[in-house]
Amino acid sequence: MSETAPEVPAAAAAAAPAAKAPAKKAKKAASASKARKPSGPSVTELLTKAVSASKERGGVSLAALKKALAAAGYDVEKNNSRIKLGLKSLVNKGTVVQTKGSGASGSFKLNKNRCKPAQKLP
Predict the structure, then answer these.
(1) Which residues form the H15 domain (predicted)?
(2) Smallest Cα–Cα separation from 82: which of 31, 36, 33, 45?
């Protein structure tokens, strides 16, 4: 009596996980296909605004940029890595020039040559 009872549920149990696994994968694929739109401006836009608002001759430090973003309502502690990566990408693009330091540390100011319209040579 105990020999016949475990065999039937074991076969049903083996078939049940196989059926559930594709359903889970389908749900993950459906949720991954939906892209969330950001609710506000991007980090790079916020950083360029903060750098352009500064009147400092030597540029703005990373700490001052974080203070400006925090004052604007941006969660600096949560998005610290995004700020650093955004700052590095702005330096690589040439939008912002790094006057001191290396990486994401140091001082930054807007690239004057990048902001002006292209001039024709005679």
Answers:
(1) 39-112
(2) 45
> What is the C-alpha to C-alpha distance for residues 122 and 119, in angstroms, rounded to an integer?
10
Residue 42 has a pLDDT of: 87
Q: Which residue reads 């990566």 in tokens?
A: 85
Q: What is the pLDDT of residues 26-83, one digit of tens each?
A: 555 555 556 776 687 888 999 999 999 988 889 999 999 999 999 989 999 999 999 9
DSSP state of 15: H
Residue 78 structure tokens: 């949560």
8 A C-beta contact, residue 106 and residue 99? yes
**How far is C-alpha 121 from the geometric centre of its chain's CA atoms?**
39
Burial (CB count <10 Å: 0-12, 13-18, 19+), residue 86: buried
104's tokens: 């994401």
Q: What residues contact residue 36 under an 8 Å CB cut-off, 6+ apart?
A: none
pLDDT of residue 104: 86
pLDDT tops 90 at residue 97: yes
Instruction: Record the tokens describing residue 12, joined without a space.
Output: 């049903």
